[in-house]
Amino acid sequence: MKVCRQGCEIFPLFRVLVVALGILGLLGASLPAAPAWAEAEKDTTAKAPRAILKTKFGEMEIVLFPDLAPKHVESFVKLAKSGFFNGTIFHRVIPGFMIQGGDPLTKDPSNRSKYGTGGPGYTLPAEFSRVPHEKGILSAARTADPNSAGSQFFIMVDKAPHLDGQYTIFGEVVKGLELADTIVNQPRDLRDNPLERIEMTIEIVE
Length: 206
Known about the structure:
Layout: H1 10-30, H2 36-44, E1 50-55, E2 58-64, H3 70-81, E3 92-94, E4 98-101, E5 137-140, E6 153-156, E7 169-175, H4 178-184, E8 201-205
Antiparallel strand pairs: 1-2, 1-8, 2-7, 3-4, 4-6, 5-6, 5-7
């Protein structure tokens, strides 16, 4: 076999390159389109209402999804504007899973045994979607009844596919997600309640 030092490999490589580009073009043409919810999210994220959640550890910005879960977003915005969430705490934190808050009973430290049972006095119908529960997602907490969500919410710190299609997603953290990592790693008791109070305030930006 003749040893080729320079030049003779150029044309074979060119042919390989042309064939490869052709294959990639065919593959690209056959790729499935993005899910409808993903396309809708691209169109509405810029004009969607946002929430600024502040704690002593910092703050995060959350974009809400009114097109995906209109009733949940409407309720969350109304409660936040009224100051409902101010002074509540993250009462349940589970590393590798999520942080949960939004219970008005957590404003009173003497109610510790009742944390996780409070709400706004009404419930919301389920607005499930195909959006996956991944890190940064804001979702509505509920009981075994799918239509029992109220004011409590949770923010994912990791993916949890077993929740997909079972809980209403109505927003996503777009800035300050590291705050959730800080909160979820705080020391906690046997009920996953942080030993130290982590109070929040929530402001709506429209």
